C-alpha cells in the first residue's frame, strides 16, 4: 500500500510539473551560454540595462512586482541562475565567482549592451558585488536590496525564516516534493499577492524537483561567496543604492514563536549596522530604509525599489551623455 501510494504521488507530481511547464513556457529567450541553456527575460527599452539578480535559491519570478514598472524606465532583464527555472544546472561550484562568470557569459551571448546597472537581492547582492568587482568596466551602478554581507555572523533578523536545512532535513524536504506530499498540502500552488500575472510560471517552478539540488549547492557555497564578497570594493565613485529592510518593525507574526524579543532586537541591530557598512563601498553610496518592509522589499515595498532605482538610473544617465537613448 505504501509503495503504491508513493508511486502514485510521485507520478502525480511529475505529470503536474510537466503540464505546468508545458502550459507556461518561459517568457524571453533561452540562450546557449558556454554550452548550457540559460533563461533571460528582457522587457522595455532604453539604457543602461537593468539586470536583476534574484536571492539565494530563487528564480526570475520574484521580480514580478517591479520589472513591469522598471521596464517603463529602461530595458530591464531578469534571469534564472543555473539549475533554477528554465536554466539547466551546470557543473562546478555554485559560489559567487562562478555565478558571476555564468551571468557574464549569458549577457554577452544575448548581446546586452554595457555598462549595466545590476540589482541584487539577499544572496544575490553578494553575487552582484562580486560581478562588479570582476567586470568593473561593465557596471555603471549597483542596487543592493537587503543584501547579504560578507560577515556571516551575527545572522540578520530574517535568517530564522530562511530554513537553512541540514542534509537530513533537505533529504526529507526533497522526498515530500518528489512524492507529491508538498503538492497535496498546497505548497506547489501558492502565489504571493501581487504576482498573479506570474502565476503560471511560479506554479511551473514551485515543485520542480531539480531546483532543490541547485538550492542545496548554492547553500553549501554560501560561505565561499561571503569570503569572495569580502575581497571586493571599494568601488571608487560608482553609484550604489543600498535598500534595507525596516529593522524597527515589530516581530512578524510568523516568527513570534521562533524568536524572542531580545534576540530579534539584537539581530536587527546587527543587521542594521552591517547594512550601514555598505555605505563605505563607494563615495556615491546612498542608503534608503524601506519603512514597514521585511527582507523582501520588492514584495513589501515595490514602490521604494521602483522609485529609488529610477533615481539611480537618472544619475547614471547624467554621468554619461551616451547612456539613456532608446535602442
From TrEMBL:
One Pfam family of this chain: Abhydrolase_6
Gene3D superfamilies: alpha/beta hydrolase
Boundaries of every AB hydrolase-1 domain copy: 56-307
InterPro entries attached to this UniProt entry: AB_hydrolase_1, AB_hydrolase_fold, Meta-cleavage_hydrolase
Xref: PANTHER family: SI:DKEY-122A22.2
Protein name: AB hydrolase-1 domain-containing protein
Organism of provenance: Dyella acidisoli
Upper lineage: Bacteria, Pseudomonadati, Pseudomonadota, Gammaproteobacteria, Lysobacterales
Amino acid at each position: 500500500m505504501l509503495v503504491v501510494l508513493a508511486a502514485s504521488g510521485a507520478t502525480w507530481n511529475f505529470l503536474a510539473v510537466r503540464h505546468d511547464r508545458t502550459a507556461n513556457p518561459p517568457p524571453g529567450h533561452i540562450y546557449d551560454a558556454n554550452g548550457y541553456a540559460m533563461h533571460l527575460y528582457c522587457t522595455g527599452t532604453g539604457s543602461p540595462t537593468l539586470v536583476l539578480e534574484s536571492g539565494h535559491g530563487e528564480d526570475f519570478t520574484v521580480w514580478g512586482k517591479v520589472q513591469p514598472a522598471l521596464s517603463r524606465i529602461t530595458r530591464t532583464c531578469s534571469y534564472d541562475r543555473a539549475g533554477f527555472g528554465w536554466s539547466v544546472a551546470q557543473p562546478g561550484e555554485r559560489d559567487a565567482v562562478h555565478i558571476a562568470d555564468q551571468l557574464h557569459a549569458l549577457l554577452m551571448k544575448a548581446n546586452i549592451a554595457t555598462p549595466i546597472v545590476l540589482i541584487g537581492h539577499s544572496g544575490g547582492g553578494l553575487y552582484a558585488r562580486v560581478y562588479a568587482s570582476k567586470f568593473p568596466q561593465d557596471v555603471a551602478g549597483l542596487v543592493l536590496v537587503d543584501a547579504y554581507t560578507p560577515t556571516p555572523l551575527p545572522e540578520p533578523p530574517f535568517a530564522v525564516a530562511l530554513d537553512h536545512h541540514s542534509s537530513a532535513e533537505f533529504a526529507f524536504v526533497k522526498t515530500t516534493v518528489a512524492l507529491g506530499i508538498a503538492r497535496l498540502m498546497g505548497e506547489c500552488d501558492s502565489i504571493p499577492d501581487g504576482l498573479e500575472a506570474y502565476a503560471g510560471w511560479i506554479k511551473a517552478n514551485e515543485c520542480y524537483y531539480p531546483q532543490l539540488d541547485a538550492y542545496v549547492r548554492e547553500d553549501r557555497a554560501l560561505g565561499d561567496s561571503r569570503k569572495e564578497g569580502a575581497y571586493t570594493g571599494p568601488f571608487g565613485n560608482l553609484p550604489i543604492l543600498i535598500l534595507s529592510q525596516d529593522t524597527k518593525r515589530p516581530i512578524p507574526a510568523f516568527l513570534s514563536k521562533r524568536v524572542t524579543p531580545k534576540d530579534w532586537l539584537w539581530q536587527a541591530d546587527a543587521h542594521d549596522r552591517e547594512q550601514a557598512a555598505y555605505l563605505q563601498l563607494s563615495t556615491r553610496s546612498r542608503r534608503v530604509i524601506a519603512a514597514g518592509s521585511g527582507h523582501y522589499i520588492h514584495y513589501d515595498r515595490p514602490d521604494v525599489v521602483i522609485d529609488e532605482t529610477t533615481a539611480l538610473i537618472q544619475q547614471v544617465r547624467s554621468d554619461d551623455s551616451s547612456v539613456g537613448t532608446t535602442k
